[in-house]
Amino acid sequence: MKVMIIGGVAGGASCAARLRRLDETAEIVLVERGPFVSFANCGLPYHTGGIIAREQDLIVANEAYFKVNLNIDARTRCEAVAIDRRAKTVDLRYLDTGEVTTESYDKLVLSPGAPSVVPPIPGIDQPGIFQMRTVPDARAVREWIEKGSLFLTGMSKYSGFQTARPKTRAVVVGGGFIGLEMAENLVHRGFDVTVIELRDQVLAPMDREMAEIVESHLKHHGVSVVLGDAVTAFTPREDGAIKVATRSGTEFPADIVILALGVRPDTALARSAGLEIGKLGGIRVNDNMQTSDPEIFAVGDAIEVRDTVTGAWSLVALAGPANRQGRIAADVIAGRDSRYRGTQGTSIIGLFDGAAAWTGASEKALQNAGRQDYEKVYLYPNSNAGYYPGAKPIAMKVLFSRTDGRLLGAQAVGTKGVDKRISTLAMAIQMGATVYDLEEAELCYAPQFGSAKDAVNFAGMVAADVLRGDMPISHWGDPSKAILLDVREPAELSVESVAGAVNIPLRQLRERITELPRDRDIHVICRSGQRAYYATRILLQNGYRAHTMSGGMLARYHRGVLDS
Amino acid sequence: MKVMIIGGVAGGASCAARLRRLDETAEIVLVERGPFVSFANCGLPYHTGGIIAREQDLIVANEAYFKVNLNIDARTRCEAVAIDRRAKTVDLRYLDTGEVTTESYDKLVLSPGAPSVVPPIPGIDQPGIFQMRTVPDARAVREWIEKGSLFLTGMSKYSGFQTARPKTRAVVVGGGFIGLEMAENLVHRGFDVTVIELRDQVLAPMDREMAEIVESHLKHHGVSVVLGDAVTAFTPREDGAIKVATRSGTEFPADIVILALGVRPDTALARSAGLEIGKLGGIRVNDNMQTSDPEIFAVGDAIEVRDTVTGAWSLVALAGPANRQGRIAADVIAGRDSRYRGTQGTSIIGLFDGAAAWTGASEKALQNAGRQDYEKVYLYPNSNAGYYPGAKPIAMKVLFSRTDGRLLGAQAVGTKGVDKRISTLAMAIQMGATVYDLEEAELCYAPQFGSAKDAVNFAGMVAADVLRGDMPISHWGDPSKAILLDVREPAELSVESVAGAVNIPLRQLRERITELPRDRDIHVICRSGQRAYYATRILLQNGYRAHTMSGGMLARYHRGVLDS
């Protein structure tokens, strides 16, 4: 059996290695159009930032490794240019020689990935504008930065001389993973960074109000974030820099520009071979990773996958799913009935000293899928016991089914313990856990690692309190004629208060309860929602129509949660 | 309804607070024999070490808080001395006045906790010997340390003068949570610390070979660990210190001694009231937390609970379960059918820059429960992507059912990411996950937080490879007449090799395979087990009887995993 694998990074490399474990006799050919097989593309921004010092560290395995250890024929700078499905052959072009050969296959695996979107903006080809998708991209950015100063030829204090000016201004176009990681790494390299994002938020998979915490944290670390604006032109400036002009009429000077507008499945080869393409533009596969031609498999960023929560097709460019898909394709080729379960989209991004992460469906994904039966809560539990030094709040949004309590999604932003909570909740979603299961979860607790009621337990308790009717909730912005009751202490109100809210501190509520009307809805506010819950319990049991404002004042603006 | 709650720390305080949320009208009395309600006993060692600076930080809520915010009558230094179940009364003694009153109840909740075991060792009452269970204990230790120097009155260089000698030598008796936490914190305070443990390992809930990694790490940080020895006497020394004599005939000088021999359920009150006591010596309760008298509930460290994996009764002194039990008792008292699901024993302990953690059953717990159907694997995945600076290995042992692949237990020791992996696996066990589910888990991955194949995925893959028959495994110490095949590189063998093993580096295995016999079992060794797996696959497919030595050389001695 001869297996050709097109694309040698995450999915393709995993498929090749797995197949060799399962079949010593198969002839395996792995072709990669770039100069490296199996490189760590998730590390590229950190290499440009100098955190990963050596380019060599990004190379997981080279062609010799594949040959010697795996008996796999790996070929770099080799591009598949056509598939003849009837003849079961692939035309390969060797980029260094231009030679084209035709090679037969018994099984074919496509792992072409998803190249960066590069829109036809005028001036986009001039020097100093980069993508960040390959090792050569990272090398080019490093060289550009390290090449040193631009020369300022205009008037200066010492008029008439050329003045060396270090590169200090960066514009990152796009506020997704790569864009924000590059923003951070360019700050590490001493740049003033501006991120320009077309949408009204960064990190599109998150819900907007959670992304606002990220934006606030980026600003806290000196990154300018421009939302709802698009680059219309790049033009050279007299000082050697690039003028970045936007739709809103703003101009940003930049000594370097990073294009990070997202990725798009590379389906050219699949399309020309007549394979089925999904509505989102990715290659369509079945659970066995087979395309519409059962002899041809596809894995990784180029395919469409089922979202495990909403059931919708989606495009997910993540290394973990790509690796698993590669393994599954290998299993199936080796004669096993291995099936891909779909993707729940678990993701994390580091943000200076913090992180943002999510798993499962966002609220907008649920809305897009037409789900009406969900509820959400906001909470701000500590990363670990409050009495142990260094405890930090984690801003969390948790989505769950009103019908059966099943966990649907979670988003978190914080400086400590975010990855743990979202990984734990990802496992919960995978296993079909309800918020009642989260209440009872038994997680690691010592004061430096968690709390006796961990953030995950707390999320379950808050959500379950809603479902059991113990805590009717309301959300900021919900249309309502309710009375607002603020149960914080007067000193807290002096910092920030809500116009029109009645103030009765929680500790006085029992004795002053008659000041409130029984025949109106009361939305109770405190700092984070906890005291409001306590107040809600007191009010409900005394016959009042109380609702807790989920997340309290912290959920009102979100922005300051991490950096206050 | 009048509810009396005996014991005001984790379980009792949680019960009281929860009950108030559910019932505004109940009369709730919370009595605590110590001077504080609702204090953070998990923080005590870190307070003595100076990490938690102020005693006040350990006090979660005081009596005034309970009164003002919860309308709960909390009474400290008040001990319940007798229960009259027929009259439904409790006799309370006020420790400051000696006064005894009789108080009625409708429902009674016992949360007496589990005091430290203090064996009748001669000399145990002398100054300088402490327990670590209460805020006053911590205060006493701090005062003893800070009181400064002992005076050396024997002969010194300047003979005839008293010489001030700082307290520098500590003996900790017991190698459990409190003992090891105290050892670390005494190191922080500048002490030379010796831990004396009766068992042949520290941290009894772990399997011994995993505890050896902990012992090695403690030694790496300067803590002496003496196993299999017991203190027989404490006697005063001339220099003002304490001589700690042990059964083995060794003597340790100590300027301070911490007794941390574990805890025993406080069942005096329950026994005298005729409530059922389990075989392990804890109060027996049903899923609703009711004792054999349905009007009396019991929660926390004093009760026996079902182990969710083995089904066996067990004693678990952990804050998380205690809090949940308290909530459940409150629910049931308030008329709800809330049920405790049992305990899976998830625990973590910080160890200087590292941690040890576990969840579910240990191998010895499975053996004690008579389970024959389990298998185990050892692995040493990185905390995060190896190409990102700061990645550290995590030593993991994973136990699972050979029958259906269900995850039964996991133990981990490492310097980074241990809490995340065990919390994630705890959720997996809670939800009945199999090792096949772990393979497919979609966890947070960015290079600073994890790997595209996370440690949890990797655990699932290794275990599933065993169950699918792709990787027959063997373990060090298994009786066997197998040939040992070491597939490491010669340079690695020069550091440490296995007597009698044949060496064929993995990269040469295909061409040299005929050097091996087809008619004998071959146990394949490498550093961590990964290359041995690759070799096993090659051998099996060529008709050889190969087994991977699980965990490779790292599992042979375990000790150096963290600190090499």
Walk me through the structure.
Chains A, B: Its cofactor is FAD. Chains A, B: Pfam families: Pyr_redox_2 (PF07992), Pyr_redox_dim (PF02852), Rhodanese (PF00581). Chains A, B: Keywords: FAD, Flavoprotein, Oxidoreductase, Redox-active center. The structure is a homodimer of 564-residue chains. With 564 residues, chain A is an alpha/beta fold. The first copy, chain A, has four domains: 2-114 and 264-333, FAD/NAD(P)-binding domain (3-Layer(bba) Sandwich); 129-259, FAD/NAD(P)-binding domain, CATH 3.50.50; 347-467, FAD/NAD(P)-binding domain, CATH 3.50.50.60; 473-561, Rhodanese-like domain (Oxidized Rhodanese, domain 1), CATH 3.40.250.10. Chain A has 16 helices and 30 strands. In chain A, strand 11 (169-173), helix 5 and strand 12 (192-197) form a beta-alpha-beta unit. At the A-B interface, helix 1, helix 8, strand 21, strand 22 and helix 10 of A face helix 1, helix 8, strand 21, strand 22 and helix 10 of B.
Based on the model shown, name its key terms.
homodimer, about 575 residues, alpha/beta, FAD/NAD(P)-binding domain, 4 domains, five-stranded parallel beta sheet, FAD/NAD-bd_sf (chains A, B), FAD (chains A, B), Rhodanese-like_dom (chains A, B)
CATH homologous superfamily of the largest domain in chain A? Answer: FAD/NAD(P)-binding domain
For the record, the CATH architecture of the largest domain in chain A stands as: 3-Layer(bba) Sandwich
Strand content of chain A: 15-25%
Tell me the quaternary state.
Answer: homodimer
Rg measurement of chain A, Å: 27 Å
Protein name (chains A, B): NADPH-dependent 2,4-dienoyl-CoA reductase/sulfur reductase-like enzyme/rhodanese-related sulfurtransferase
Keywords (chains A, B): FAD, Flavoprotein, Oxidoreductase, Redox-active center
Cofactor (chains A, B): FAD
Family (chains A, B): Belongs to the class-III pyridine nucleotide-disulfide oxidoreductase family.
